[in-house]
Amino acid sequence: MRAMVFRSFGGPEVLELAEVPRPQPRPGEVLVRVHAASVNRLDIEFRQTGFGFAGPDFPFPHVGGADAAGVVEEVGEGVTSVRPGDRVVVFTFVTCGQCPACLARRPENTCQSYQLLGIHRWGGYAEYVCVPERNVVPLPDEVGFEAASCLPVSYVTAWHGLVNRADVGPGDRVVVMGATSATGIAAVQIAALRGARVVGVGRSAWKLARLREVGVEGAVSLLDEKWPQQVCAAFGGRATVLFDTLGRTTWAHIHELLERGARVAVCGRTSGVELSTNLLWLYRNVTTVHFYLSGQRRDLEAAVAAVARGLLRPVIHQVYGLEELAEAQRAVDSGETFGKVVVRI
């Protein structure tokens, strides 16, 4: 099969189009003919350095791509929920099924021996990808492959934090930190879908201007030194929910942003991993904070249903061919994209 592989970590120049063996589904697995995949920061950072997931004995060549959607080509022994010809989108988070968290049926993202598609196992930048049966989610005809490929990382992460963790709903005032990123845009859309008022915070002026298209009532620039006050002014009060992809920048000002009893969902650290904040203020104001990675299969199912009903429309910046993956990743890495970049296989 054709696949974009890399044989060492490095820049986009390490990507090459190659012929590699097509995976064969083992018992309990599903082989998917990939029609579309999308580009995530996760894919880029892993290709650059291994991103803390890969040791010196990492087995190259590797096929990246954490997002994939397509059609079931073949199923392994014992698979009953899908059959060849079914349209599916792939859930990124692969659980072990054997650790205490899995045996206790805790959320998938608490698995102690998890794997991520395109990181620990070959991913979606290929004509075929093989995953466990529980990692394929049926795709209605109303949802195109390109739109579906946007969902498993960015939209699942946002849905999990805002819906499953923070329980956002009407009456909430949601501030999205890093709102101009792909995950931030997804968070804006999902919070608005849930009936909340939304203010987005970011750096790029042209992207902030475009946030109006996806549901914000206020867009605030981090380049304004009084940005926390601007957020509160846009709401006419403090936020009841904060969705954070930034890390350090957010936490230095969190006491200026939040209402008493607020909920916080943290899934990123693009401005720094070390946090300095006022714990006394946080607990005296009964602040609930959720740190989390990715999401659950049910988040992907819910996002697919919302797209199928026309309630949610993934924002796609541009579509590239598989052989243009290096260019697609350069575009995302440059920060000059608004929404998701998709690779058509």
UniProtKB/TrEMBL annotation:
Give the record's keywords alphabetically: NADP
Q: Pfam families under this entry?
A: ADH_N, ADH_zinc_N_2
The organism's place on the tree of life at top rank: Bacteria
Q: Where is the Enoyl reductase (ER) domain?
A: 10-343
List the Gene Ontology MF annotations in alphabetical order.
Answer: oxidoreductase activity
Coiled-coil segments: none
What this protein is called in its record is: Alcohol dehydrogenase
